[in-house]
Amino acid sequence: MIASEDEMDRASLPFLVSFNVAVSVGLVCQLGAAAPKGGEGKPAIVSMNADSSTGSGSSSGTSSEPKDSPKPAFHSPLRSVLGIGPAFYWEDTDRVQDRFVNGQRDQQSDREAGVSNGILALEAWYLTPWWLKQLRVGPGLGWYNDYTLKPKGDNNNNGDNYHVGQMFELYAQAEYVLIDMLSKMDVLLGLRAGAIVVFPGNDVQDEINRYKAEEYDVWDSPRPGAFIGPHFGVEWPLNDKLSVRSDLGIQFAKIWMFNAQAEAGGSLIEVKNSLITSRTQLLLGLQFGL
Predict the structure, then answer these.
(1) pTM metric for this prediction
(2) How many CB atoms lie within 10 A of CB 202?
(3) Residues 215, 216, 220, 222: what is their CA dihedral angle, to the nearest 10 degrees?
């Protein structure tokens, strides 16, 4: 007797239900076995977050790119010094006068060779380490009291002196110091350069007044100039604060004494007077460490 399809469906229904339940229970058991026990998954997630936060912190706080390290502070074995002392000098100076008409030289330069009637000047300076460990730089001041010229070869001082006036040098100085080069003495290699200011003396002022009387336009004020020159010397420390120095230098200088202008017969006449000097100078001084 063959069962009908409805009877077969009813007979197989319990089997299908049992099969589905078994499959579902098996899947649940597999998932339970694969899951970490005792809530171990949560710390793993926290650990990953901590690692990622640490990574982000290192990327933001401690960059893999090297930072600019602070530059080391400049240190020099030298110290700043304040110095003063006399300078003995010998020089050759030419008094040069040029005359121009409408911008063209009218005649050859009139030159008169002379030398200084004095040999003593006073110098003061300040030096401080800069840039290189053995380099010092700073300003200085020189004073040539009652600067006067006399004709070259006039050893008898016959009275033909040319009183220039009070002369000052305002300069910058740089020198390289070779420490303990000669026993306990330092060797100095340097350069001085700066401006010259002359307050006219009697003879210069008389010459200016003469041109003014002839209706020339003359600049009546302190005379400007410039100089430059190297020097070589030694420095001998006496103690931690005091040292003695001596240097020999050569200077090349020019002073523009005056420039007189006038118009005559439709022409512009110009007279220029200057001093051109080459000077050898021996400086003896005391330096006080600061």
Answers:
(1) 0.71
(2) 12
(3) -160
Query: What CA–CA distances, in Å, run from 183 to 135, 144, 179, 180, 248?
Result: 20, 34, 9, 6, 20
Start-to-end Cα distance in the chain:
131
**pLDDT digits over 120-162, tens only?**
999 999 999 999 999 999 999 999 999 999 998 776 666 689 9
Tell me, what DSSP letter sits at residue 35?
Answer: S
Helix (H) / strand (E) element for 34: namely helix 5-34
Single-letter amino acid, residue 229? G
Amino acid at 47: S
Query: Rounded CA gap, 60 and 135, in Å?
Result: 43
Which pair of structure tokens corresponds to residue 3? 């069962």
| Number of CB atoms found within 10 A of residue 211's CB | 19
> Cα 192 to chain center, whole Å?
15
Model confidence over 171-218: pLDDT tens digits?
A: 999 999 999 888 889 999 999 999 999 999 999 999 999 999 999 999
